[in-house]
Amino acid sequence: xxxxxxxxERLTQAGAELADExxxxxxxxxxxxxxxxxxxxxxxxxxxxxxxxxxxxxxxALEELADRxxxxxxxxxxxxxxxxxxxxxxxxxxxxxGRYAAAQFRLDPEAAAASAGxxxxxxxxxxxxxxDLAEPDQTHAVRLLGSVFHGYVSLELAGGFSHSxxxxxxxxxxxxxxxxxxxxxxxxx
Length: 189
Prior knowledge:
The chain is mainly alpha-helical. It contains 10 helices and no strands. The protein has one domain: Tetracycline Repressor, domain 2 (Orthogonal Bundle). Helix 4 runs antiparallel to helix 5.
């Protein structure tokens, strides 16, 4: 019944594809075993458990997102960088909804420290240097951007903007304009 060639990497990639197809919450070792037509027990030589599988998918998603963001940010600054960065998250969520959900998965401190999450924060801070924000305002702005990007994308993916005008594309553009204006005119404490 088992297939030769199963590796942790191959199972992680298949789990990520499964997340995009069924939803991250539906990813289980049992479902993955069905996909490979193997017994669940045969996967435990590559994965510790379902938590390990989900952690690996989350790490993969964070890495993919960070790679895309780094490429999009190269040579950009100011609003151009902000827009490119935001669009990476939105496009990734649209293309890979399960992986995007995985990127929000709560990691244990050790896994988080080893993840590409730090790259995301560094890139966000690099964008904010163009807005001349000092600490603690820079941290507040990092949190604001993450909240707006994630909130907008999550609502859009759930169909929250599909029943009214204007089009969500127009609202997205206006949201990025508003964020740029806010960052250029950050309020004093």
